[in-house]
Amino acid sequence: MSDSSSKLEVLIAVDFGTTFSGLCWALKDKPRDHNPVQNWPGDGASHNKVPTTLLYQPKYLWGYEIRGNEPRYEWFKLGLHPSGEGKGLAKNYPSTTSLIAYSTEDKERLVINYLTSLRKHTETIMANTYITSVFSKMSREYIITVPAVWDDKAQGRTQECAKQAGMGDHVQIITEPEAAGIYALSNMPTTTLKKNDTFILCDAGGGTVDLVSYTISKLQPVPRLREAARGEGGLCGSIFLNRIFAKRLTDKFANYPDWDDEYQTDALKFFEDDIKKNFNGDISQHYFIPARGLNKPELGIHQNKLRLSGEEIRNVFEPVVQDVISLVITQIHKTARPVTAVLMAGGFGSSEYLRTRIQDVVGTGIEVRRVANGDTAIVKGALISGLSKKDPGHPYAIGSFGIDSRVARRHYGTMAYDTFIPGVHDENLKEPSPYSSDFFVPCMQWLIQKNTNVEDTKPVVTQKPFFWEKPVLDGSPTFIETRIHVSEKDQAPLHLDRKNVSELVKIHADISSIPAESFPRKTGVGHQAFYRIPYKIETAIHSGSITFALLYGDQRYEATKEFL
User: Fold this and answer.
1) Alpha helices (runs of H) in 102-258, residue ranges in sequence order
2) What are phi and psi of 441, to 5 degrees?
3) What pLDDT, in 10s, does the model give residues 74-127?
4) Structure letter (DSSP) for residue 279
5) What residues contact residue 200 under an 8 Å CB cut-off, 6+ apart?
6) Number of CB atoms found within 10 A of residue 78's CB
7) Rounded CA separation 274/268 (Å)
8) What's the start-to-end Cα distance of the chain, in Å?
9) Lowest mean pLDDT among 315-319, 409-413, 424-428, 508-512
C-alpha cells in the first residue's frame, strides 16, 4: 500500500460448521478478490477448512493442532440449538472421541473460544499481509453462517457468541443455504435455471443437512431469489459415514487383537481421504486399505492390505443417504411450485453417490447437480452477500445481491387485551377492565403468520396500536417494553396457551427524549391518572436474524432484544 494512512475496510466471512469451519475475506474496495484461509495451525498442508474441535488439557489446542484419537470437544455448535441431538444417526452412531459439555454456559464457552481462535488466526494472516501502519487502522467486520432450521433464539445466541469472541458489535448473520444459493447462481453460468424457476438448495455438510426452496426472481444483472418454502434439516452429514465405517471395522475385528488402535486410525484416515470422496456407487469395485504386517485372509486382510468390496462401502453410505433423501422428498412436497432442480452444496454435497441416489429417486423431471466448489460455496456466498449489503451501489452488487422475501418459519406475536366477547373468548380468562364496566381478555395479537412471505426490504408493521401504560405519579415514561411470543402450530392460537405459545424475546425501546406532556393520559378506576401511550411494532425477518422497532407517532425507535 502506497498510502499507509488510508483505512481499509474488510469483511470476513465465517462458515461456522458442525465438524469443519471455513474463513474467507475481502476488501470492500476489491469485492471480487476473495481471500480464502487455507493454512491452519498444526498442519503444513493447504485445507479449505479446519476441524471444529477444541482441547484444553494439557494445553489449549484447536483444529488441526489436535492429533490422532485424543478426546476432544466437538459438535459443540449444536449446543446453541440442541433439539436434534440424541436422535436417529446421532443416537445410533455416537462419537467415540468426544468430550461432553453438559451445561448451556459450557457449550457457549466452547463456541466463544473456538470463534476467538478463528478470529485471531485470520487477524494474524492479515497482519502478515499488510504493513503494520495499514493493519492497525484496518476496519474489520464479520458475517457468520447459521443453519436455516435454527430458531431465532439459536441464531441470536450465535450472534452473541461471535460478539464475545471479539468479532464486533455488528456481526451479520446469514443462513447456510441462502449463502450457498447466492454463490451457486453467481458461479453457474451454464445453469439451465430460468427466471421463475424453483429449486431446492441442499447444503449437505459434515454434521448437518439443511434444505430451503427458492424461486428465482431474476438472474440478470445479478440473481435475486425469494424463498418458496421454509426449510427442513437434520443430523445426517458425512461424519456419520466415518462413524458407521468405524463401527463396521470394530465389529469385524472384535476378535482379532492384532487390529489395534493404530490400524483403526490409519484405516479411518484412508476412508476419509480416499474412499469417502471418490465412491460413486460402483459395487464391482474393490478398495484396498494398507494394513502393513497383517495377514488374516478370512477377515479380508491379505498381503498387508484390507480388501473391502464396493457393496460393503455402499452399505456404509446407505443409512446416511436414505436420511438425506427423506429430507429432499419432504422439501419437494412442502414446496407449492414445481421444483426444477436440486442444487447440492457443502462437502457431502460434492459426493457423486449422494447426487446419483437423489437423482434416481426424484426422477428425470428434476435435475440434481453439484454446486462448483461445494465445500467453500457457503463461506464465499456469505462473503458476496455481506459485501453487497455493505455497499449496495458497488458494481459487484448492482443493487444488492440476495433474497427478496423469506417465508416465516413460525407465528410471531404479542399478548394484548381485547374486549371480552361471549362465545368467542374463554370465559375463564376474562378480567375486569380498569377503565370501564366491560371485561377484557388476554389474547394473542399475531404480527406475522407462519408460512407467510415477508419482503426483505419491507418490515411488517402492526395495523392497530398497542398501549404502554404507566401511572402519572410514577413519573414520565422513559421506555416501552413488550414481549414477543412465537408458536410453531399451523393454526395460530387465540389465547396465550403455554403448551403451544412460548416467549421468544423481550424488546425494549428508549423514549426518554419525548416530552412527558406529549403522551396521552387516561383516568382509570379510583380516578388514578395513567399515561397510555399508543405504539406499533415493526418486525423484519432477515437471513438468520429478526429485528424489531417501535413506532410512536411519526417516530421510529430501534428496539433492543433480550432472548428469554
Assistant:
1) 104-129, 132-135, 152-162, 176-186, 239-252
2) -140, 135
3) 999 989 987 666 678 988 998 888 888 878 889 999 999 999 999 999 999 999
4) -
5) 211, 212, 213, 214, 328, 331, 332, 335, 339, 341, 342, 343
6) 20
7) 10
8) 48
9) 424-428
Q: What is the pLDDT of residue 435?
A: 64
Q: Give 557's DSSP letter.
A: E
Task: Look up residue 296 and give its DSSP letter.
Answer: B
Determine contact, residues 402/392, Cβ cutoff 8 Å.
Answer: no
Do residues 72 and 54 touch, judged by C-beta distance below 8 A?
yes
d(CA 438, CA 544): 43
b (16+ CB within 10 A) / e for 323-332: bbbebbeebb
Cell numbers describing residue 308: 473391502
**CA separation for the pair 89, 74 (Å, rounded):** 16
Measured on CA atoms in the order 234, 238, 239, 244, is the torsion positive or negative? positive
Assess contact for 246 and 317: CB atoms under 8 A: no
Q: Which three cell numbers stand for residue 91?
A: 443416537
- Count of CA atoms in the C-beta half-sphere (13 A) of 101: 23
Quick one: which of 227, 209, 198 has its CA closest to 338? 198
Q: How far apart are CA 20 and CA 22, in angstroms?
A: 7
CB contact at 8 A, 531 and 519: yes
Of residues 206, 167, 237, the one with CA closest to residue 386: 167
CA-CA distance, 42 to 45, in Å (whole number)? 9
| Contacts of 73 by beta carbon, 8 Å cutoff, 6+ apart | 53, 54, 55, 56, 98, 99, 101, 110
Residue range 58-78: average pLDDT?
A: 90
Q: How far is CA 456 from the centre of its chain?
A: 18
Determine the distance from the C-alpha atom of residue 472 to the mean position of all C-alpha atoms in its chain, rounded to a whole number. 45
Convert 409-468 into a string of H (helix), E (strand) and C (coil). CCEEEEEEEEECCCCCCCHHHCEECCCCCCEEEEEEEEEECCCCEEECCCCEECCCCEEE
Grid cell in block for residue 163: 460478539
pTM above 0.85, yes or no: yes
Q: What pLDDT digit, counting tens, does each position of 177-214 carry?
A: 999 988 888 776 656 788 999 999 999 999 999 999 99
Regarding beta strands 53-55 and 545-552, do their DSSP bridges make them parallel or antiparallel, or are they unpaired? unpaired
Whole-angstrom Cα Rg for the chain = 27
Would strands 339-345 and 367-370 be described as parallel, antiparallel, or unpaired?
parallel
Domains of the chain, CATH where assigned: 9-175 (3.30.420.40), 408-563 (2.60.34)
